[in-house]
Amino acid sequence: MAEIRQERALRTREVLLRAAAEEFDEKGYAAALINQILARAGLTAGAMYFHFKSKEDLAVAVMNAQRHRIEPGLNARGLQRLVDITLVWAQQLRVDPLLRAGVRLAVEQGSFGMHDASTFLEWREIMVTCLADAESDKELMPGVVPEDIAEFVVGACTGIQLYANLVNGREDLVERTVRMWELLLPGVAVPSAARRISLDAERGRVS
Are 17 and 65 within 8 A, CB to CB? Predict the structure, then answer.
């Protein structure tokens, strides 16, 4: 019985996160209303407040869900894993409202009084781990500092998706991400590793 209750609670939390993400994605934080989130979810206020104390708490949970929308589908290591993270992220931003909402909230949070860098820092640490593996596998050029590259890629991806969103609703975000790596890899990877790295945009197509 306890397991059934726990599964029900987890399902309720996921339904709330999805409904909140859709509302945040469409309207932004300020215009998103709790009653509209509850209507989307088909749940009561009591169900929401069991899991989340406030709209801000919901927003933080949506922002922090980003990595879980990307990493489960990856199986590569080192530089290829880092490239795949960005390709899957670029593709999923076009089709996954939870990921889109998380990115939108993370970028726009200053406008509604939040200053939480944790999602950016989390991506940075994930990328540092990929680059540390790449360094261990002798994929990196001499003098390349994993922390510096990770910091750059997080910032570059943030800027690319903002630009692509304004230009064409992110329709070519995967292609822009591929181009980023075409420019970056020659200065980061040793030639033999650079030749092995697949920049096939289909690596970003997840089922």
Answer: yes
The one-character DSSP state at 111 is G
The secondary structure element, H or E, covering residue 202 is none
Rounded Cα–Cα distance for residues 24 and 43 (Å)? 17
Query: How many helices and strands, by DSSP H and E, does the chain display?
Result: 10, 0
User: How far from each other are the two terminal CA atoms of the chain, in whole angstroms?
Assistant: 33
Q: How far is CA 51 from CA 5, 39, 47, 161, in A?
A: 14, 16, 7, 31
CA atoms of 38 and 178, how far apart (whole Å): 39
The C-alpha atoms of residue 141 and residue 153 are separated, in whole angstroms, by 16
Q: Which helix (H) or strand (E) holds 78?
A: helix 78-95
Spatial contact of 12 and 43, defined as CB atoms under 8 Å apart: yes
The token pair at 56 is 């801000």
For 17-30, give one letter per residue: b (16+ CB within 10 A) or e: bbbbbbbbbeeebe
Q: 107: which residues sit within 8 A by CB, 6+ positions away?
A: 158, 162
Tell me the pLDDT of the chain (207 aa) as tens digits: 666 667 787 889 999 999 999 999 999 998 999 999 999 999 989 888 889 999 989 999 998 888 888 877 788 999 999 999 999 999 999 889 999 999 999 888 877 777 888 889 999 999 999 999 999 999 999 999 999 999 999 999 999 999 999 999 999 999 999 999 999 999 999 999 999 999 987 775 554
